[in-house]
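Quick one: C-alpha coordinates for this chain, please?
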Amino acid sequence: MKINQWTRALLATGVVGFGAVTQAEEAPSSSLLTAVSGTQLSGFVSTSATWAPNSMQPAGGTGGIAFAPPTDGFNIDVIDLKVEKPLDEGEWSAGYAAELYFGPMASGLGNNVGSTSGNGGDVAIKQANIKLNAPIGNGLVLTMGVFDAIIGYEVANPGDNPNYTRNYAYNYEPFQHNGVLASYQICEMVSASVGMANESGTRLNSRGGGYSYMAAVTVTAPESMGPLAGTAVTAGVLDGSDADNAYDLAGAAANAGYQQIYVGGTIPSPIENLSLGFAWDHFQVEGATDTDDVALYAGYKLSDKMSLNGRLEYLDRGAAAGSGAAGGEYLGTTLTLGYALWANVTTRAEWRWDKDLNGDKWLASGATPVAGSRNNNHLFALNVIYNF
Protein backbone atom coordinates (compact mmCIF):
# COMPACT_ATOMS: atom_id res chain seq x y z
CA MET A 1 0.00 0.00 0.00
CA LYS A 2 1.41 3.41 -0.99
CA ILE A 3 1.15 6.15 1.65
CA ASN A 4 1.78 9.79 0.76
CA GLN A 5 4.20 11.97 2.75
CA TRP A 6 1.49 13.97 4.52
CA THR A 7 -0.23 10.79 5.73
CA ARG A 8 3.13 9.42 6.89
CA ALA A 9 3.57 12.55 8.99
CA LEU A 10 0.16 12.05 10.56
CA LEU A 11 1.01 8.41 11.30
CA ALA A 12 4.34 9.39 12.88
CA THR A 13 2.68 11.83 15.25
CA GLY A 14 -0.09 9.41 16.16
CA VAL A 15 -2.79 11.73 14.88
CA VAL A 16 -4.00 9.05 12.45
CA GLY A 17 -4.01 5.32 13.06
CA PHE A 18 -2.85 2.76 10.48
CA GLY A 19 -6.32 1.25 10.33
CA ALA A 20 -7.80 4.58 9.36
CA VAL A 21 -5.23 4.93 6.58
CA THR A 22 -6.03 1.45 5.29
CA GLN A 23 -9.71 2.29 5.25
CA ALA A 24 -8.97 5.57 3.51
CA GLU A 25 -6.98 3.77 0.81
CA GLU A 26 -9.97 1.55 0.19
CA ALA A 27 -12.24 4.62 0.01
CA PRO A 28 -10.41 7.39 -1.86
CA SER A 29 -13.27 9.80 -1.31
CA SER A 30 -12.82 9.73 2.47
CA SER A 31 -12.96 13.07 4.26
CA LEU A 32 -9.39 12.64 5.56
CA LEU A 33 -7.80 12.46 2.13
CA THR A 34 -10.00 15.22 0.82
CA ALA A 35 -9.03 17.51 3.70
CA VAL A 36 -5.26 17.02 3.38
CA SER A 37 -5.07 16.88 -0.40
CA GLY A 38 -2.81 19.67 -1.62
CA THR A 39 -1.72 20.67 1.88
CA GLN A 40 1.83 22.04 2.10
CA LEU A 41 4.18 22.23 5.07
CA SER A 42 6.90 24.90 5.07
CA GLY A 43 8.80 27.26 7.34
CA PHE A 44 12.23 28.43 8.36
CA VAL A 45 14.68 28.80 11.23
CA SER A 46 16.42 32.18 11.58
CA THR A 47 19.51 32.73 13.75
CA SER A 48 21.88 35.67 14.08
CA ALA A 49 25.00 37.04 15.71
CA THR A 50 25.26 40.78 16.40
CA TRP A 51 27.75 43.34 17.64
CA ALA A 52 27.01 47.01 18.36
CA PRO A 53 30.12 49.05 19.24
CA ASN A 54 27.93 51.67 20.95
CA SER A 55 26.35 49.01 23.18
CA MET A 56 22.81 50.06 22.35
CA GLN A 57 20.06 49.18 19.91
CA PRO A 58 20.36 51.32 16.78
CA ALA A 59 17.79 54.05 16.25
CA GLY A 60 16.68 53.93 19.86
CA GLY A 61 15.51 57.52 19.59
CA THR A 62 13.02 56.64 16.85
CA GLY A 63 10.96 54.39 19.10
CA GLY A 64 13.06 51.36 18.18
CA ILE A 65 13.26 49.03 15.19
CA ALA A 66 10.66 46.30 14.88
CA PHE A 67 12.06 42.82 15.62
CA ALA A 68 15.50 44.29 16.33
CA PRO A 69 17.87 41.62 17.71
CA PRO A 70 19.88 42.11 20.91
CA THR A 71 22.92 44.27 20.23
CA ASP A 72 25.61 41.78 21.23
CA GLY A 73 25.78 38.00 21.15
CA PHE A 74 24.23 34.99 19.43
CA ASN A 75 20.47 34.88 18.93
CA ILE A 76 17.65 32.58 17.94
CA ASP A 77 15.43 35.00 16.06
CA VAL A 78 12.41 32.92 15.17
CA ILE A 79 11.21 29.47 14.14
CA ASP A 80 8.39 29.62 11.61
CA LEU A 81 6.00 26.75 10.89
CA LYS A 82 3.34 27.10 8.20
CA VAL A 83 0.66 24.65 7.08
CA GLU A 84 -1.17 25.81 3.97
CA LYS A 85 -3.54 24.66 1.27
CA PRO A 86 -3.45 27.16 -1.63
CA LEU A 87 -6.45 27.80 -3.81
CA ASP A 88 -6.67 25.50 -6.82
CA GLU A 89 -8.13 26.32 -10.23
CA GLY A 90 -11.69 25.36 -9.33
CA GLU A 91 -14.35 28.04 -9.53
CA TRP A 92 -15.45 27.46 -5.93
CA SER A 93 -12.06 26.43 -4.57
CA ALA A 94 -11.13 26.91 -0.92
CA GLY A 95 -7.87 26.98 0.99
CA TYR A 96 -6.37 27.90 4.32
CA ALA A 97 -3.15 29.03 5.98
CA ALA A 98 -2.00 28.48 9.56
CA GLU A 99 1.38 29.96 10.48
CA LEU A 100 3.03 30.15 13.91
CA TYR A 101 6.10 31.97 15.23
CA PHE A 102 8.24 30.41 17.97
CA GLY A 103 11.07 32.22 19.76
CA PRO A 104 12.00 35.76 20.78
CA MET A 105 10.68 37.43 17.61
CA ALA A 106 7.21 36.08 18.42
CA SER A 107 6.97 38.41 21.41
CA GLY A 108 7.01 41.43 19.10
CA LEU A 109 4.36 40.17 16.72
CA GLY A 110 1.54 41.27 19.00
CA ASN A 111 -0.70 38.18 18.92
CA ASN A 112 0.89 35.84 21.39
CA VAL A 113 -0.73 32.59 22.41
CA GLY A 114 -1.82 32.51 26.05
CA SER A 115 -1.19 36.23 26.66
CA THR A 116 -4.10 38.49 27.51
CA SER A 117 -2.08 41.59 26.62
CA GLY A 118 -0.89 40.20 23.29
CA ASN A 119 2.81 40.47 24.13
CA GLY A 120 5.38 38.66 26.17
CA GLY A 121 5.04 35.11 24.84
CA ASP A 122 7.39 33.05 22.71
CA VAL A 123 4.58 31.58 20.59
CA ALA A 124 2.48 33.81 18.33
CA ILE A 125 -0.07 33.43 15.55
CA LYS A 126 1.24 34.98 12.34
CA GLN A 127 -1.50 33.77 10.02
CA ALA A 128 -4.72 31.83 10.55
CA ASN A 129 -7.14 32.34 7.72
CA ILE A 130 -9.46 30.71 5.21
CA LYS A 131 -9.43 31.67 1.53
CA LEU A 132 -12.51 31.32 -0.68
CA ASN A 133 -12.66 31.82 -4.43
CA ALA A 134 -15.90 33.14 -5.89
CA PRO A 135 -16.36 32.93 -9.70
CA ILE A 136 -17.19 36.61 -10.16
CA GLY A 137 -15.58 38.19 -13.20
CA ASN A 138 -11.89 37.27 -13.12
CA GLY A 139 -12.33 35.62 -9.73
CA LEU A 140 -12.90 37.27 -6.36
CA VAL A 141 -10.78 35.90 -3.50
CA LEU A 142 -12.08 36.35 0.04
CA THR A 143 -9.74 35.92 3.01
CA MET A 144 -11.14 35.75 6.54
CA GLY A 145 -9.13 35.45 9.74
CA VAL A 146 -5.62 36.63 10.56
CA PHE A 147 -3.67 37.80 7.50
CA ASP A 148 -0.54 39.87 6.85
CA ALA A 149 -0.79 43.64 6.40
CA ILE A 150 -1.50 44.57 2.77
CA ILE A 151 0.64 47.72 2.59
CA GLY A 152 4.31 48.34 3.37
CA TYR A 153 7.55 47.50 1.57
CA GLU A 154 8.94 45.10 4.18
CA VAL A 155 7.41 42.09 5.93
CA ALA A 156 7.80 40.12 9.16
CA ASN A 157 9.67 37.11 7.73
CA PRO A 158 13.34 38.22 7.69
CA GLY A 159 14.31 36.17 4.63
CA ASP A 160 11.70 37.91 2.48
CA ASN A 161 13.32 41.33 2.94
CA PRO A 162 16.37 42.65 1.08
CA ASN A 163 18.06 43.46 4.42
CA TYR A 164 18.17 41.63 7.74
CA THR A 165 17.07 44.51 10.00
CA ARG A 166 13.80 46.32 9.21
CA ASN A 167 13.29 49.86 8.01
CA TYR A 168 12.08 52.57 10.41
CA ALA A 169 8.57 52.56 8.94
CA TYR A 170 7.98 48.94 9.93
CA ASN A 171 8.00 49.98 13.57
CA TYR A 172 4.81 52.00 13.00
CA GLU A 173 2.95 49.69 10.61
CA PRO A 174 0.48 47.00 11.67
CA PHE A 175 2.10 43.62 11.13
CA GLN A 176 -1.18 41.79 10.58
CA HIS A 177 -4.97 42.11 10.76
CA ASN A 178 -7.87 40.00 12.01
CA GLY A 179 -10.78 40.54 9.68
CA VAL A 180 -11.91 40.00 6.10
CA LEU A 181 -10.13 40.94 2.86
CA ALA A 182 -11.47 40.92 -0.71
CA SER A 183 -8.91 40.72 -3.54
CA TYR A 184 -9.64 41.06 -7.26
CA GLN A 185 -7.54 41.03 -10.44
CA ILE A 186 -9.14 43.85 -12.39
CA CYS A 187 -7.03 43.28 -15.51
CA GLU A 188 -3.56 42.08 -16.47
CA MET A 189 -1.98 45.22 -15.06
CA VAL A 190 -4.17 46.12 -12.08
CA SER A 191 -5.16 44.26 -8.91
CA ALA A 192 -6.95 45.63 -5.86
CA SER A 193 -7.77 44.66 -2.27
CA VAL A 194 -10.19 46.11 0.27
CA GLY A 195 -10.73 44.93 3.82
CA MET A 196 -12.10 45.50 7.28
CA ALA A 197 -10.53 44.29 10.51
CA ASN A 198 -10.43 44.81 14.24
CA GLU A 199 -8.64 47.94 15.40
CA SER A 200 -4.92 48.30 14.78
CA GLY A 201 -3.07 47.49 17.97
CA THR A 202 -1.44 44.86 20.08
CA ARG A 203 -4.29 42.33 20.16
CA LEU A 204 -5.88 41.01 17.00
CA ASN A 205 -9.09 40.16 18.87
CA SER A 206 -9.30 43.57 20.56
CA ARG A 207 -12.16 45.84 19.50
CA GLY A 208 -11.98 48.57 22.13
CA GLY A 209 -11.45 51.36 19.61
CA GLY A 210 -13.59 50.14 16.73
CA TYR A 211 -12.46 48.81 13.37
CA SER A 212 -9.75 49.34 10.78
CA TYR A 213 -10.43 49.82 7.08
CA MET A 214 -7.84 49.20 4.37
CA ALA A 215 -7.45 49.35 0.61
CA ALA A 216 -4.58 48.87 -1.83
CA VAL A 217 -4.09 48.96 -5.60
CA THR A 218 -1.10 47.41 -7.39
CA VAL A 219 -0.17 48.27 -10.98
CA THR A 220 2.29 45.94 -12.74
CA ALA A 221 3.74 46.77 -16.16
CA PRO A 222 3.52 43.81 -18.60
CA GLU A 223 6.23 42.69 -21.03
CA SER A 224 4.54 44.66 -23.81
CA MET A 225 5.61 47.93 -22.14
CA GLY A 226 9.24 47.43 -23.11
CA PRO A 227 11.71 49.22 -20.78
CA LEU A 228 9.00 49.67 -18.14
CA ALA A 229 8.20 45.95 -18.03
CA GLY A 230 8.45 44.60 -14.51
CA THR A 231 7.60 47.86 -12.80
CA ALA A 232 5.25 47.20 -9.87
CA VAL A 233 3.82 50.03 -7.76
CA THR A 234 1.43 49.68 -4.83
CA ALA A 235 -0.56 52.51 -3.27
CA GLY A 236 -2.66 51.91 -0.19
CA VAL A 237 -4.32 53.40 2.87
CA LEU A 238 -5.23 52.17 6.35
CA ASP A 239 -7.69 53.98 8.60
CA GLY A 240 -8.51 52.83 12.09
CA SER A 241 -7.53 53.36 15.70
CA ASP A 242 -4.23 53.12 17.51
CA ALA A 243 -5.13 50.79 20.35
CA ASP A 244 -3.14 51.46 23.52
CA ASN A 245 -0.86 53.84 21.58
CA ALA A 246 0.79 50.83 19.99
CA TYR A 247 2.64 52.91 17.41
CA ASP A 248 4.45 55.17 19.89
CA LEU A 249 3.71 58.42 18.06
CA ALA A 250 4.25 61.65 19.97
CA GLY A 251 1.19 63.00 21.75
CA ALA A 252 -1.11 60.13 20.80
CA ALA A 253 -3.71 58.88 23.25
CA ALA A 254 -4.93 55.31 23.59
CA ASN A 255 -7.53 54.39 20.94
CA ALA A 256 -6.85 57.60 18.99
CA GLY A 257 -7.60 57.66 15.27
CA TYR A 258 -4.79 56.22 13.14
CA GLN A 259 -4.07 56.64 9.43
CA GLN A 260 -1.32 55.28 7.22
CA ILE A 261 -0.71 56.13 3.56
CA TYR A 262 1.77 54.07 1.58
CA VAL A 263 3.26 54.23 -1.91
CA GLY A 264 6.07 51.90 -2.89
CA GLY A 265 7.32 49.37 -5.38
CA THR A 266 10.08 48.23 -7.69
CA ILE A 267 11.25 49.78 -10.93
CA PRO A 268 13.44 48.35 -13.73
CA SER A 269 17.04 49.34 -14.19
CA PRO A 270 18.94 49.71 -17.46
CA ILE A 271 21.92 48.08 -15.72
CA GLU A 272 21.91 44.30 -15.85
CA ASN A 273 21.59 42.54 -12.46
CA LEU A 274 20.61 45.82 -10.73
CA SER A 275 17.19 46.09 -9.04
CA LEU A 276 15.69 49.26 -7.56
CA GLY A 277 12.90 49.95 -5.08
CA PHE A 278 11.31 52.79 -3.15
CA ALA A 279 8.83 53.34 -0.34
CA TRP A 280 7.05 56.30 1.24
CA ASP A 281 5.06 55.86 4.44
CA HIS A 282 3.00 58.59 6.09
CA PHE A 283 1.60 58.05 9.60
CA GLN A 284 -0.86 60.19 11.53
CA VAL A 285 -2.42 59.55 14.93
CA GLU A 286 -5.04 61.92 16.30
CA GLY A 287 -3.36 64.43 18.61
CA ALA A 288 0.14 63.54 17.41
CA THR A 289 2.53 65.04 14.90
CA ASP A 290 2.83 63.53 11.42
CA THR A 291 5.57 60.97 10.81
CA ASP A 292 7.06 60.37 7.35
CA ASP A 293 9.54 57.77 6.22
CA VAL A 294 11.22 57.60 2.80
CA ALA A 295 13.40 54.64 1.82
CA LEU A 296 15.36 53.84 -1.35
CA TYR A 297 16.50 50.30 -2.13
CA ALA A 298 19.12 48.95 -4.52
CA GLY A 299 20.18 45.35 -5.07
CA TYR A 300 22.95 44.02 -7.28
CA LYS A 301 23.57 40.39 -8.20
CA LEU A 302 27.33 39.97 -8.03
CA SER A 303 27.27 36.31 -9.09
CA ASP A 304 24.96 33.30 -9.14
CA LYS A 305 25.47 32.94 -5.40
CA MET A 306 26.34 36.43 -4.15
CA SER A 307 24.24 39.60 -3.91
CA LEU A 308 24.56 43.05 -2.35
CA ASN A 309 21.52 44.99 -1.08
CA GLY A 310 21.49 48.56 0.16
CA ARG A 311 18.89 50.77 1.84
CA LEU A 312 19.05 54.53 2.40
CA GLU A 313 16.31 55.88 4.66
CA TYR A 314 15.13 59.18 6.09
CA LEU A 315 12.67 59.41 9.01
CA ASP A 316 10.98 62.64 10.11
CA ARG A 317 8.98 62.30 13.30
CA GLY A 318 7.64 65.82 12.90
CA ALA A 319 8.93 67.41 16.10
CA ALA A 320 11.70 69.93 16.75
CA ALA A 321 15.23 69.04 17.77
CA GLY A 322 15.50 68.31 21.46
CA SER A 323 12.28 66.34 21.65
CA GLY A 324 14.21 63.07 21.56
CA ALA A 325 12.14 59.91 21.33
CA ALA A 326 9.03 62.00 20.71
CA GLY A 327 10.36 63.38 17.45
CA GLY A 328 13.36 64.39 15.38
CA GLU A 329 15.02 63.41 12.12
CA TYR A 330 17.04 60.27 11.50
CA LEU A 331 19.10 58.82 8.66
CA GLY A 332 19.60 55.08 8.25
CA THR A 333 22.09 53.37 5.95
CA THR A 334 22.16 49.59 5.60
CA LEU A 335 24.38 47.32 3.46
CA THR A 336 23.75 43.58 3.31
CA LEU A 337 25.97 41.02 1.57
CA GLY A 338 24.24 37.71 0.87
CA TYR A 339 25.87 34.44 -0.15
CA ALA A 340 24.06 31.19 -1.03
CA LEU A 341 26.61 28.46 -0.44
CA TRP A 342 24.36 25.74 0.99
CA ALA A 343 21.07 24.57 -0.46
CA ASN A 344 17.99 26.10 1.24
CA VAL A 345 20.22 28.36 3.36
CA THR A 346 20.31 32.17 3.31
CA THR A 347 23.51 33.66 4.75
CA ARG A 348 23.83 37.44 5.14
CA ALA A 349 26.36 39.83 6.67
CA GLU A 350 25.04 43.30 7.43
CA TRP A 351 26.32 46.70 8.51
CA ARG A 352 23.81 49.29 9.70
CA TRP A 353 24.51 52.93 10.52
CA ASP A 354 21.85 55.10 12.20
CA LYS A 355 22.45 58.82 12.62
CA ASP A 356 20.47 61.36 14.66
CA LEU A 357 20.40 64.39 12.35
CA ASN A 358 19.35 66.71 15.18
CA GLY A 359 22.40 65.81 17.26
CA ASP A 360 20.25 64.82 20.23
CA LYS A 361 22.28 61.72 21.03
CA TRP A 362 19.13 59.58 21.04
CA LEU A 363 17.41 61.59 23.72
CA ALA A 364 14.83 59.85 25.85
CA SER A 365 11.94 61.85 27.33
CA GLY A 366 12.85 65.44 28.13
CA ALA A 367 16.49 66.27 27.49
CA THR A 368 18.30 63.35 29.12
CA PRO A 369 20.54 61.36 26.76
CA VAL A 370 20.13 57.59 26.73
CA ALA A 371 22.99 56.09 28.71
CA GLY A 372 25.91 55.19 26.48
CA SER A 373 24.23 56.61 23.37
CA ARG A 374 25.88 58.33 20.40
CA ASN A 375 24.76 60.42 17.45
CA ASN A 376 26.16 57.70 15.19
CA ASN A 377 25.16 54.14 16.00
CA HIS A 378 26.56 51.09 14.21
CA LEU A 379 25.35 47.50 14.15
CA PHE A 380 27.13 44.51 12.60
CA ALA A 381 25.07 41.35 12.11
CA LEU A 382 25.39 37.87 10.67
CA ASN A 383 22.07 36.22 9.76
CA VAL A 384 21.64 32.55 8.77
CA ILE A 385 18.22 31.21 7.71
CA TYR A 386 17.30 27.65 6.79
CA ASN A 387 14.14 27.35 4.69
CA PHE A 388 12.18 24.12 4.42
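The chain has a mean pLDDT of 79.
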